[in-house]
Amino acid sequence: QVQLVESGGGLVQAGGSLRLSCAASESIFSFYAMGWYRQAPGKQRELVAQITSGISTNYADSVRGRFTISRDNAKNTLYLQMNSLKSEDTADYYCRMVRYGYSYWGQGTQVTVSS
């Protein structure tokens, strides 16, 4: 069972930056797709950004140009660099990794952006 642990969340002022990390308990080389999702209070969980093993990326319209997803296979870690943060980015952020049809989730990290 793969364990995913997110970190890097916190409280930041609007316009600031945070970098989220998602560390996997084993090599991520075989994971086809990895992504960051977020869930704000009272809302459904939504895809923020995704990256495939081929380094193809896609982003939600609301974060494109501000957020960057990346992966470091050597460190077994997925990242989300978040710049120009807005109050509407406030949410719990989760990482997800997919391999051989199985989906693994982290426990989440909270991001709060104050205006």
Average pLDDT for all residues:
95
N/C terminus separation: 40 Å
Largest sheet: 7 strands, mixed
**Element-level helix/strand string:** EEEEEEEEEEE
Helix content: under 10%
Instruction: Label the overall shape.
Output: globular
Query: Would you count the extended β strands for me?
Result: 11
Low-confidence stretches: none
Tally of DSSP helical segments = 0
Strand content: over 45%
Structural class: mainly beta
Rg from Cα: 13 Å
Please characterize this protein's 3D structure.
By secondary structure, the protein is an all-beta fold. It has strands at residues 4-7, 10-13, 18-24, 33-39, 46-52, 57-59, 67-72, 77-82, 91-99, 102-105, 109-114. The strands form two sheets. Strands 2, 4, 5, 6, 9, 10 and 11 form a seven-stranded mixed beta sheet that branches. A four-stranded antiparallel beta sheet has the order 1-3-8-7, with no helix packed on it. Strand 5 (46-52) and strand 6 (57-59) form a beta hairpin. The termini are far apart. The relative contact order is 0.32.
